[in-house]
């Protein structure tokens, strides 16, 4: 495996990056389903919409990241069109039967337009433009970059070439995703850099981690804060 210094010598000075943002349509009963016990179907969908809008507002300050919005189950929901127009983003439909396939498909497309891709979701209220820039800079001297989530998943994964080994058969939604990703990076003999771990909002107990501007205006069941 090449050393980090060897990788740095081989890295072009003008690394171009695409940030692929994976969002789900805020449809009641289909969005943020693990939060439905606390927020109800409509409340969970509303939070999904708020998280997407807030993320794109923050990341619009990172022009070098070249944001793309990847929509599921398709790009027809008006929220996607509104956000894409507001932030001048390209809008794409996610393809694949599971999350791993959808991530790999989008990454393959993104790498036809840039030297590297950063894959992120919309569940992390602490992911900022500075965090993206840090990830982009780390890719100048490593094959990949990983932004772990506090729950054992990840909030960001970036790389300069695609390997399906990073996605196939991954137990998505579990607490071993980041550890398994690290092991698969070792299998590939890739160098990688890790960013600070951040919290994402997936379960009722995570709602206490929302910043004040994103606290739900709707009633939340008491057990969500236990």
Automatic annotation (TrEMBL):
Q: Which UniProt keywords apply?
A: Transferase
Molecular function GO labels: transferase activity
Q: Which InterPro entries match?
A: Nucleotide-diphossugar_trans, Trfase_1_rSAM/seldom-assoc
UniProt xrefs under SUPFAM superfamilies: Nucleotide-diphospho-sugar transferases
Name the Pfam families for this protein: DUF2064
Can you name this protein? Glycosyltransferase
Q: Which organism is it from?
A: Thiorhodococcus minor
């Amino acid at each position: 495996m090449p050393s980090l210094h060897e990788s740095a010598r081989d890295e072009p000075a003008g690394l171009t990056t695409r940030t692929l943002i994976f969002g789900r349509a805020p449809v009641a009963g289909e969005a943020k389903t693990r939060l439905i016990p606390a927020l109800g179907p409509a409340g969970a969908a509303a939070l999904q919409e708020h998280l997407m809008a807030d993320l794109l507002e923050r990341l619009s300050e990172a022009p070098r990241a070249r944001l793309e919005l990847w929509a599921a189950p398709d790009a027809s929901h008006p929220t996607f069109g509104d956000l894409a127009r507001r932030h001048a983003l390209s809008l794409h439909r996610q393809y694949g039967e599971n999350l791993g396939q959808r991530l790999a498909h989008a990454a393959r497309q993104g790498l036809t337009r840039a030297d590297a891709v950063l894959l992120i979701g919309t569940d992390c209220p602490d992911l900022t433009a500075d965090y993206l820039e840090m990830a982009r800079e780390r890719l100048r001297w490593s094959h990949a970059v990983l932004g772990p989530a506090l729950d054992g998943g990840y909030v960001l994964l970036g790389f300069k070439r695609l390997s399906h080994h990073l996605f196939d058969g991954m137990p998505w939604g579990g607490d071993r995703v980041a550890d398994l990703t690290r092991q698969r990076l070792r299998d590939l003999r890739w160098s990688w850099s890790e960013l600070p771990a951040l919290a994402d909002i997936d379960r009722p107990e995570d709602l206490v981690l929302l910043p004040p501007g994103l606290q739900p205006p709707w009633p939340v069941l008491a057990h969500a804060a236990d």
